[in-house]
Amino acid sequence: MELRHLRYFAAVAECGSFRLAAERISLTQPAITRQIHDLEDTLGVRLFDRSPQGVKLTAEGALFLEEVRKVLGMLESAVRSVKLVASGLRGTLRVGVVENASWDGIVPDAFSLFQREAREVAIHVAPMNTPEQFAALVDGTLDGGFVYTWGELPRGLSVMPLALGDVVAAVPRDWDWPAGDTIAARELNGRPLVCFPRQTYPAYHDTLVAACHAAGLTLNVVQEVPTEAAILSLVSAGVGAAIVNAANLGRPPARARFLRFEDLSVGMPLAFAYVASNPNAALQRLLRVLESMPRA
């Protein structure tokens, strides 16, 4: 028994005629009649009662039709699912994000546009810093990641530049800093500062320290923590000030103030990183969405 036998049987049952069924599926009447005879021989039952007026299902045939419709329906569903997966409209997409980049701007906009196109793709978002995302991309546990890029990329990774941000100062509100929304970097000299350890992201750390030195600021680091969320928690607690990604402006802490620098700039190059050979069609669809978006 082959799939075609089931299709021919369903067509004859629905049309009530070998001739009409043959016309529907573009087959000659003798050919479809022979196929039904072969199916009946295989099953060992008579599926139709034949008469000059047409054909009528036997009790066995009616039961068989119910099951055949289930099988054909499952097959159509499977074909539809495979086509959706192949076009990137169904499946799973594992994406890393540097958390502060996901609160405003191109990252949430990209997720929104993508989900409008591909509602049946489940996006699994993993908050990670950039080096963690690079490692996960290389070992295949992420499909892509929104990262900040300094220095050399790991071998095998490709990146799509998205936006260029900057840094701002974060100071505790209880420091009673003078009014205004700007600050000169040297005004932080002698102040306690909270920073991230160099091993978290050496290339970014070295870039930041060099830019501070050029602006006349010597960092007086009193505590190091690995994430900007933790850094801003300590700033809010009054432990010290910090220099953080301006993306944090999208979710300002209640007990910290953000001040823009008058004389210090550290470009924050946001990009989407991925492995070009990744076969996930949903990844390719997300890349097309990102390519279509305006750049900041």
UniProtKB/TrEMBL annotation:
GO terms for cellular component: protein-DNA complex. The keyword Electron transport does not apply. SUPFAM superfamilies: Periplasmic binding protein-like II, Winged helix' DNA-binding domain. It comes from the Bacteria. Keywords: DNA-binding, Transcription, Transcription regulation. Residues 1-58 form the HTH lysR-type domain. Pfam families: HTH_1 (PF00126), LysR_substrate (PF03466). One of its GO terms (molecular function) is DNA-binding transcription factor activity. Belongs to the LysR transcriptional regulatory family. This is DNA-binding transcriptional regulator, LysR family.
